[in-house]
Amino acid sequence: MPMNSPSRRSDLNPSGRLLTHIASASVLAATLIFETKASVYIGEGSSFLEFIPAIIIISYLEDRGPALAATVLMVAAGLWTRSTLHGQISGEDWARAILLLISGGVIAMTFHRLRQDVRELLEVAEARLAAVEATESRYRWAFERAAMGFANTNEKGELLQSNRRLSEMTGYDEDELAQLQLETLVHPDDRDALAQLLARLGKDSASFASEVRLLRKNGTAFWSRLTLSLSVPDGVLSETIFVVVDDISERRAVHEALRAQKEWLDLALSAGRLATWRIDLKDGIVTGSGTFWDILGLPPAGSRRLEELSAVVHPADWPKLAVSRKLAPVTNYDVEIRVRRPDGHIRWVALRGREEKYDDRLQRLGVAADLTERRQTTLLRAAAKKRERIMLEQRHRFINLFPVITALVNMVNVPENNVARYKETLIDRIRSLEATHLLLSGNSSGSGMLHDLVVQELQPYMGTRDISVSGPSVTMSGGAAESFAMIVHELATNSLKHGALGDSKGRVEVNWTFASEDAGSDIVFDWVESGRRRPSKVVRHGFGSMIIGVDGAPLVGHSPKLEMTDHGLRYSLRLSRKEIGP
User: Fold this and answer.
1) How far, in Å, CA of 311 to CA of 313, rounded?
2) Is the pTM of this model over 0.85?
3) What are 152's strand-pairing partners?
4) Which 8-state DSSP code applies to residue 176?
């Protein structure tokens, strides 16, 4: 629309409005002159319809008011001219004048309404244009200041438009980028990936992305995520390809570092026969590395239910894997379990790690190690040391037998020069010593129970004599046990010859108790015989008296007491725990 259009009248400067008024006045004046001359020359045959073109022009140039005023002025001028020239105004002239007034009013109102409609349309269009411009401005601002690089390219790969970030990434300014092709920015080794993106674009999808290396202006390369998108749905490669460049160099470096660290960790774990595992205690799901399942003797799997492990974990060790009902804070987790592999072998497995709460879920995670060989080596070493200790003890005991036997020979006198009896007595003592030695040798620790030593001497008479043996469990070391066995043997031998064991109606009671509840208290040993005793000649300084300590210190213990009557015998001895302890 021209700048002098009435619809834009309010936008005209004063000189423009003045020219519009002059043009309107000129049209009005020319129309009045034409109507006056027509009335003079044509006479009554002229009509008011000659004013309509002028009214239309004035309505177009001016607003509704000037157009109505011009219409009234034209009607008045026409009526005045006819009245002057003809002396009167005919009814036909009045009808034409009224018709002109109506036509002029309609024309003025019509142009006024059209002018308002046009103005409203222009205002709506201007508002929409302003919104579009504002949106474009915001997008332009975002485009220029985005954290990623943006560009547009055509089907030839030419960069038509780029933002500031892409210039910073590549080192080129916008004018230099506009003279380059997208392929030029891509590293030669990654240009095939770009070609594949362009080939698939518009066929399979409207957007594709790939990680490629881009070249800077100085020739160095950096990793980026390149995304190509079509801005039109028809899939035609024209000036519609939108390029997004995201610099992922740091992310890629971190990823490569993590990958290298994982490879190193896997290598270290594999070299140490270690495996990684994780147990989600809420869902009861177990995940682990391939080595973990290999240690358990199970085929590799992504995950398994915790209950499935009960088939291979030893029942006694299964509670170690039980789910804790209380969500505890981070704690160390260190257990050893036994695993029965499908081939029947038992393996010791150590699970070490942490038990912690993560996202309101209790979990255990750590490493697993096969300790079977180490445990077997430890057990073998312990067994070897134990065997060596026992052998040393037996050797020491065997060496000590010679002094004991020598003492026996020296202590036994030849009764009345009876060599046969001397021989019999000596052999009997040696056999008693042999029986005690065999009893102690049957125990791996080289010690014996007091109860066993007493029963061993009385065992031949258990079925035919009234014998009772009672007392708490007491362990005696090898040397003390041998000496104590000789005391019991001497008592049994004396009882068989002169006391209860030699009488079918006799009774022997053997018991021992602790002198007090103190851990270091003595043990009081009592040998009590009841029944008729056969008279005998007591030798005060004989071998038996020396053993039981009637005339001095016994072989073991202290404070011996011997009481004999015609109807029985009582022998009492106190044994120190430190003296008889292993």
Assistant:
1) 6
2) no
3) 161, 242
4) H
